[in-house]
Specification:
By secondary structure, the chain is an all-alpha fold. It is built from seven helices and no strands.
């Protein structure tokens, strides 16, 4: 290569580096410029996507359980459905971001216990536990959003 081509190549590299540095906010390092939030993390997105069908099944089982009026074969099937899906969610693989683990599983233990209470015919306890689990999940949702958006 000639000296002119080498000089042009070096100048091009220096200009690109200067543009890249100038495009970052003041004080931000190259590593910080590449930081992504939990919500942007492909592994976290995949985890939520893979868990979605179970979450929908839980919501459907909870809705059906709220409609139980007394012992019946249908009630037993609904109670079993609630117990099974809550157990699956409870034992599902851990979320890739540890700080999300508690909030995304809020209320699942209560739903598991509600299913067991339902299977024994204790529908009052089942309803109370469903309400407690639903409240815990609602309260955790804001925290989950903050974690996914990198606000916490």
């Amino acid at each position: 290569m000639t000296r002119t081509k080498i000089a042009v190549a070096v100048l091009t590299i220096l200009c690109c580096a200067a543009v890249a540095t100038a495009s970052r906010p003041a004080g931000q390092t190259p590593a910080a410029a590449q930081t992504i939030t939990a919500g942007e993390d492909p592994a976290v997105q995949r985890w939520f996507l893979n868990r979605e069908a179970m979450q929908i099944e839980l919501n459907n089982a909870l809705q059906a359980a709220r409609g139980i009026t007394g012992p019946s074969r249908q009630a037993t099937a609904i109670c079993t459905r609630l117990t099974v899906v809550s157990r699956k969610l409870q034992t599902y693989e851990r979320v890739p971001v540890a700080s999300l683990d508690g909030p995304v599983n809020a209320g699942i233990e209560e739903f598991q216990r509600a299913g067991r209470a339902c299977l024994t015919g204790d529908h009052a306890t089942m309803r109370r536990l469903i309400d407690e689990g639903t409240t815990a999940r609602a309260e955790a949702q804001h925290h989950i959003d903050e974690l996914l958006h990198g606000e916490e």
